[in-house]
Amino acid sequence: MKRIVAIFVIFLLLVMAGCSGETNTEAQDKGKNSKGTSFSLGVATWVGYAPLYIAEEKGIFKKNGIKVDLMKMESNTDRRTALAAKRIQGFASTVDTHVVSAAGDVPAVQVVALDESHGGDGIVAKKEIKSLKDLKGKRVAVQTDGGASFFWFLYLLKEEGIDFKEINAQNMTAGDAGAAFIANKVDAAVTWEPWLTKAKKTEFGSVLATSDISPGVITSTIAMHRDFIKENPEVVRALVKSWFEAVDYYKTNEEDALKIMGKAMGQSTEEIKEALKGVRFYDEEKNKEYFGTKEQPGQIYELSKLSAQFWKDQQLINKEPNIEDLIDYSFIQ
């Protein structure tokens, strides 16, 4: 009788364990997730972010102890809103975009630089326009409601001592700006490929300047939610490490890397190889240079501060954010 009761008790315990719906392994996984080893990153379809897919495909994220959900989100506004609501834990975008987020009280903190535009963006103009100073009074198509193209254009004007008010700006997206120039509707346009190449093929147009004349100005970074960084510093460190390893893989295994990145971007190997000519990835060494240290900050600090000034002057933000809160140098050094 005692033996029957013992068997019944054991059986009952097993049933109760099964009803809990959670195995030891599942419980361990749940514990890992609560500590932030699994998180979501908002990314647009941009070749500069493509090494993230190398990290995913080649198991680099997994090797470094993290699981990253790369969520395709084409709109900066959507990514910013998702981060504020903690539906994602970070997102990739340009430095000037993260400044806008911070100015709107979204706690975005830049932790690693990904890439810079190195000739992929440019200004196309009619052949009689030989310099930036010649743009004064001319109809220039440029997206004046923010974005990397506008920031870069303002930067170039500042370098030449030109007031933006001296430009007859026509507000439109970079793609529409390029199309408007090809259609001979404006005198110049701030745009990107393939419109730079198309402009050179017209009888009236040429490329006035490209982004390779201003290294580091159009640079993309990953910004993470401040709370996530505070609670999961080792996870953020693993993300940064994974990026560096993915870029290194591209350098040493180009053919395989191009296949992976091309698939992620919806391009052939040749197409993405051509697209990457206008991009420079930031490896560990370049990141150390770009970030610098808190005591001796690099270019990222200067450009973040300049972005805040530009956007405030253009009334795209109501206040300048604290740049010190916008950059975390600890994951690079």
UniProtKB/TrEMBL annotation:
One cellular component term from this protein's GO annotations in UniProt: periplasmic space
Domain Solute-binding protein family 3/N-terminal: from-to ranges: 40-264
Subcellular localization(s) per the UniProt record: Periplasm
Keywords attached to this entry: Lipoprotein, Palmitate, Signal
Primary location class: periplasm
InterPro entries in UniProt: Solute-binding_3/MltF_N
Pfam families: NMT1_2 (PF13379)
Protein family per UniProt: Belongs to the bacterial solute-binding protein SsuA/TauA family.
Protein name per Swiss-Prot or TrEMBL: Aliphatic sulfonate ABC transporter substrate-binding protein
Organism: Pseudobacillus wudalianchiensis
